[in-house]
Amino acid sequence: MNLDDFLRTDPRDVGCGEAMELLHAYADLHAADPAAARDRYPGIEAHLRACGPCSTDFDGLLTLLSN
Fold first, then answer.
1. Is 67 part of a structural domain of the chain?
2. Total structural domains in the chain?
3. Is residue 12 part of a domain?
4. How far, in whole angstroms, is CA 13 from its chain's centroid?
5. Is the whole-model pTM more than 0.85?
């Protein structure tokens, strides 16, 4: 990965605010059908790839849903 790749923002990325508003819905759908979650919420998928803190929250939700 070069610096340009690192600095490039995916235009689909919805940002932390919108991702946090919908993260519970995304996690519920992802737990049942990951492909459907990616298709329905591409902006959240893009954001989670780029944002460590939001990805950590998402992983925590998935852990809760799996118990």
1. no
2. 1
3. no
4. 9
5. no
